Amino acid sequence: xxxxxxxxxxxxxxxxxxxxxxxxxxxxxxxxxxxxxxxxxxxxxxxxxxxxxxxxxxxxxxxxxxxxxxxxxxxxxxxxxxxxxxxxxxxxxxxxxxxxxxxxxxxxxxxxxxxxxxxxxxxxxxxxxxxxxxxxxxxxxxxxxxxxxxxxxxxxxxxxxxxxxxxxxxxxxxxxxxxxxxxxxxxxxxxxxxxxxxxxxxxxx
Length: 205
Prior knowledge:
Elements lengths: L8 E6 L11 E7 L5 H8 L18 E7 L2 E5 L10 H17 L3 E9 L6 H13 L3 E6 L6 H15 L7 E4 L8 H13 L8
Parallel strand pairs: 2-4, 2-5, 5-6, 6-7
Antiparallel strand pairs: 1-3, 3-4
C-alpha cells in the first residue's frame, strides 16, 4: 500500500496563475461538476476527513486549491463547475481560471475527472475530455456515488461510458468509486502511482 497519498497537506488557494506554487515537479488535477463528489473523493483517497472542504452548497470551490504530497508531487482541486447558483460573471471568471491553468501549467501531468454515476458525461465533462484529448494529457474518470446504484446498474453505466469514449484518439481509463463505502480506493491509488512514477518524455528536438 502506498501511503504517500495519506501525507497530503493543503498548501494554498490561488485566485490566479501568478499565485500558484512553483511550476515544477508533477501535478494531478481533479475536475468535475460542483455536486459530483470531488471533495469527498479527495478526502477518501488521502484517508483524511477534511483535507478538501465539503460544503452542503455546491460550487464553493472557487479557487485552485493545491495539496502537496512531497516536494515534487501535488494534487490540485479545480473549481467545481455548472451547478453553483452564482452570477454569470463569477462563472466566467472560474472558467477563465481553469482554462488558463489547464493550458499554461507545465507541471500538470493528468486529470482525474469526477462524475456522479447517475449523471455521467455532462456537457462540462465532454469539454474536459475533449481538452485532454487535444492536449494529450492522461485522463482517468471516477464514477462516484456508485453506492447509490446496485452493482449491476453501476457496472452497466461503467460499460456504457466506456463504449461512449471508445473512439477517442487517446485511451481513457475509468472506474467505479464510492467515498461512503470506500470502494475503488486501491484502484485510483494504482493509477496515481503509475502517473507519478511515469518517466518524463524526452523533449522533441
